[in-house]
Structures are given as structure tokens and as C-alpha cells.
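Notebook entry, structure prediction.
Reason for the run: the old model in the group folder had no record of what sequence produced it. Starting over properly, with the input documented here first.
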Amino acid sequence: MYIPLKKLVKNLRWTSIILGVTNVGVIFMGVIFFVCWHGRSCTRTQLLPFFFVMVAAGVRVMAMIRCAVEQQAAAIAVLGSGSSSSSVPDASVVAVDLSRLERRLSYKRWLWWTRFATVVTLVQLLLAMYLIFVVGSNTPSTDCALVSLSSTGGWKRLLLVVFLLMVCFVAMLQCFASSDVLRWRSFYDMQDSAWKAHYQEVFDHGIREALCCLGRVKYLKNMEEDEVNSVAQMLGDLVTYRASGTGHLEFLAGLALLQMHNQYPKLDANSVDAPEDKIEEAAAFYPFAEAAYTGPLLDVGRNPILFPCAWLYRQGVFTAWSRNRRPVLQGDNWWRGHAAAFLNYVNLSQESLRRGRVNQGKCQAAYFIVVLHDIRSVVIAVRGTETPEDLITDGLCRETFLTMEDLDGLISGLHIDPITRQAVLSSFPHYGHSGIVESARELYHHIEGAFSGASGAAAFESGGFLSSLLGAGCECDGYAVRIVGHSLGGAIAALLGIRLYGQFSDLRVYAYGPLPCVDSVIADACSGFITSIVHDSEFSSFLSVNSILRLRAAALTTFSQGSTTDKAMISKLAQLFLNVSKYESGTALTPIPAAAIAGDATQSYMTDKVYGNQSKTISEGNMDLGNYAVLHNESRINEICKSMAKDLLEDVTDSFLPDENHVDDPVSRFLEAVPSSVTRSTGDPPEIYLPGLVIHLIRRQRGISFPLWKGWGPQEREPPYKAIIANRENFKEILVSPYMFLDHLPWRCQYALQRVWESRKMKMNHDGLQSV
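New structure, fully documented this time:
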């Protein structure tokens, strides 16, 4: 595929043209200086800075030319691989692999030249600073007029000043300009497959380089298909909005509008409170799920400044003499710090920790097995996302088939409900999250199974570590089994519990903030022994391929419906989304941004127009618990809200303020166009859900609409959280909320569970006193 030179010139980005012209100008002016002043009392030391600046500018021009050539080659390779894999379905596997390898090599060559150009840019910046220092440090008596701003000739001084300004301008502009010399859209146009292949390479190389910086060099050297390529392919499919001409800022602006008017699920009056036994047991076993984070992640969040000291203390570095008494875990460091960190957090003796693993490979989960003789229980704690390998497991979110072995706990066993067994068997095939299913399988084989066989044939044998611990006549015969985990660990714990439930009847799983990982039939079938606990609006429990696709469609609909949005407004909306955590309000619900957040009473017409009865509910002081946007009466947040949100959000809202004579405004059209859910068509990935019984911890809104003296008594005080049994269908759509990431922090869920259980105990004690 050959692209003519004339078209190639038209494909240049305007920043590339400016950089090329200015660099050539630096070279041209440098030649003039050398011709005019060479040999006129100017020493070699005084001429060298100008010479180096000229050379650097020339190298930068050549690097730009080479980058353009390699970028064109990479674009042609992407177009070729996209056509071979999409338009030719019967293409041979070898041809597709060769095309993909050529695409990766072309992209790597282009990436190498862009990195070289970046290094040259850094050299130019340093040379510009050095040149200014040389010119500024020379005394007025310097004979060489080339390096003296006090030259007698006015035109010479002016020429020197222009040269210095041009050198500094080129160096600074290149620091902020993109590395792309040509416009990718000039090659790909509106081809969906080309944009997918392009962003697959962008994410693939980005992930591999990030892993290499974290010490995983093997991923950078691997040129074959692996789990990183699968994650990059999935991420590339999510950025296909570029094929429609939509930019990244426009997408962020759409997300900002979604956050501004997001309609959260309502909690009706018939909502059922979560069972007290579930809340009590979930609160009691949550510390084990949190203690599984034995790396520095837990301490970074809780001790942002002194986290190295806190982590070293938790790892037992200051008590290294007790190393030999600590349990040995697979992959632990030489002082057995991960075992010490886990035991220190849950305050258990060293004999309680029987087995565990902290090192990880592909789809391998870190875990800890603890024996609690005082309550006759064996606890299996599965760690959540903490390492790059965990992030890769999260990213392998394509669906995969669940086998009969994966669902053994719902099919075999005398204690299985026949109706549940029949529902599972009659509705095959079943699906699950690919990375989580693979991790659960590997974890089951690691703690309960063993591989044996000859001649390369592997056969599975039962009777692993758990059976030797909980079997008849063993140390923990008759003990209960509790499997816990947070985030990714909670989802893996759920799949592991489904497989083990057939062997151990007294088994319960508590998954805190898990990812959706099974289909609806399996999610209902395991409700008797699996409990998923969601803390307010944490993003993980809403995260699936379908929910991301629906979120992308909803965000892009903003601009397809509202064509009057200009670039300035798009930039402001994108800035609003990127800094969304700064615009939290303490006086009104977050999804109402105009009158509620900015406090502008004159915009009530717009709020009533767009949001309907919801604005009346807020203005009348009716605080609905169904709204998940949390109110924090913190003075710092209120100060930020008044000083920053009003300036930005008033401008954004005023641009979308509906005219009385023109009701067809962009926001109104957007609200009418965005569906509550998208119907699934043929070829779409199947829907996956949270497993088991879903308990939602909702933070109550704090208000001061009642006299202060009424809140002094314990009988009048409202608990800060409410725990209800939620419908898992409510977690199909991602809620863009300022708290969606903060609510996922592990210690926040623990605090919510404790407060719910404390309020339940206070209520029971109060009712008992009244009855007496």
C-alpha cells in the first residue's frame, strides 16, 4: 500500500509543521551566525553551544521524518492486519499470525523512533538552557558579538534575541506536543477494525512497558499471544468510538454529563433489611479479607505519608529475630514478612496460619488458610487486586464456559436442593468471567487437588490439603468453612465456594465488593451459601463488559443528540469529569449539579425541566435513601465546592440552559435518547451478575433539618448506614459517581459493616430494655 507524497504532506499535523519549520529556522539562523562571526574574536568554546543547538535541531528534523515514515508503515500494517482478520473470514491462521506479527513489529519500530525523538527533545531543552546561560554570563567587554547581548550593532543584538527566543520556543513546544507526526485518522478514516487494531497495539505495548518497569521483563520480550494481548484486545474494542470521529475529550464530557444527572436506583418502602446473622458473620470475618492485602497497598491508603514505616512494621522487619517461628508461605520473602503482616492484622497466633501463597503467575490468586479452634472454623482468605498480575486477571473479562467440575457444588452432594440442581442442569451452558474462573480453578487444584500422571497425561486426584484438614477423623473434623475475599478476591472466593460446597455442607462465602462473575442462573442457585456485600456506589460491583459498553454508548449519545456543543464546553465538561472528586457537595445530592452543587437558585427552572420531580424532592428537604450519592458534611469539601464547583459548573450549566421558546435543548434530548438498559442483540457477550445473596450497604444522608437536641439521645440517632437485600439487576449499569472509587477502598466497607452491626445491636438492646 503506497501513499503519494502529496497526500502524505496533507496528512501532517499542524503541530508537526510548526515544529519542522521552527527547527529549520534554528538551523538557518545558526548558519548565518557562523558565516558572519566565524573567526571574528570568537573562540571555539563560545561557538560550540550554537553548533550543538544547530546539530540537535537537525537531528530532530531527521527524527521527525523517520517517525513519519515509520508511522505510515505502522498504519499500513494495521490496515492490512485488520482486513485480513475481518474481511476474509477464511484466512489461514498462519497468515493472520504473520500479519499480526508484522503489525506489532511496525508499531515497535515507530515507537522506538518516537522515544528517540523524545530524547532529542530533552537534549534540545538542556541546550537551550545552557545557551541562555552562556549568553547571559558574558561580560559587556566580550569581543565576540555572537555571545554578547550588549553588542554595538542593533541588528546583531536583535538577531541574537530572535535566535534565543526561537530556540526556547522550539524546546518548550516539543515538550507539550504529541509524538504523532501524521494524523492517524488520515489513514484509518472511519474503519472500525483499523481503530480496534491500532488501539490494541497502543494498550498492548503500554501494558507491557508498565509491567517491565515493575520488574516483569518477560512480558516485554514476549512476541506471542498471551494474557496481555487478550486484555489489550478487550480495551481496544472499547475505544472504537474513534471510528465515528468522536474524540477522547468528547467522551469524557459525556461521562461528566452522566455524572451530573445520573438517576440512581430507588429504594422503595418495601425494601427488606438484610438478615442480622449475615451482617454479624460478615462483619466478624471481614478482617481476614482485608488482612490478605499483605503488600504496601493497604498501608499506602491508610498512611499516605508514613506508609513505608507502617508496612515494614506490619511485615515484622523490626522483629526479624522471630523469623524462624513464623509460618512458611509459598513465595514469601526471606524474613517471612507476608505471614507476619497477615497475622499481625488479625491478631492471631502463628500456629493458626496453616497454609498460604503470595507469589503469583498467570491467573494465580494469593490466599491464606487459618484455623480458628475457638469458633470451630477454617477460614480461607483470598486476596484482592494488589499486583500487576491481579490487574491482568481483572482485565480478562471475556466470558468463558463453566464446566461440570466448576459447578460441582451445585450439582453433587446430598445437601443440594433438588430444584436448584435441576435448574442448573437444565440451563447449560453457563458462563463466567474468564480470568476469575481460571483463577478459581487453579486455586482449587492448589489447595484441594493434585495432578498426577505419566507420559504427559495429567489426571486429577481429590484428597488435597482441605480434605486432610477437614476430613473425618482429622484435626478440624466438623468445623465450618468460611471463604472470604474483597474485590477480585471476593469473586474468586465465590467460584471456589461453588466448587467446594458439594464437599463441605457447612460452607459460607462472603464476597465484599466482588466483580460480577457468573450468569443469572448460577447467581440465584448459590444464594443459600454465598453473600455478596456491596458498599454504596463502589465501581467494582457494577463492572462488566456489557456495563462498560452501555456506559460508552450513553456517554456518546450526548454529542450525537446535542450538536450545538462547542469545543470550549467539551473541554470544561472533560475537566469536570477528571476532577469530579473535587465537586462533592455537603448540602445537596451530587447528581444534581446546577442548583444543588453550585447553590444557584436562579437555575431552578432548568433543574425542574431536566430532572423533573427529583429537584422538588431535594428542595422540600425529603432526603431519599434510594439516592446513592453520599453527603459528607465536611468543611473542607464544602469549601472546595463553593470555590471551584460554582465557577466551572455554572458555565457548563448555563450553556445547556433551555430557552423558553426552544425546549429541544441538548440535555433534554439526551435524557430522552439514553435508554435505561440496552437490549442484547445477537453476538453481544452474555450478561454476568453478582453471585449469591446481594446485600447493599447504603450510606444515609446526613442532614440538619431537625433540631439538634433531638439527635442527642441514642434513641433518636439514625445509623449512618442501612443494609438491605438488593436486586442484582440493579447492578447492571455503571453509576458515574464521585465516590465510585473511594467506596471501593477495603477499610471503608469494614467501617460500614461495623456501623451497621453496632446499630443493630443497639436497637436490639433498646428493644429488650423496653420489653422488660
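Summary: The two ends are 89 Å apart (CA to CA).
The old model has been moved to the deprecated folder.
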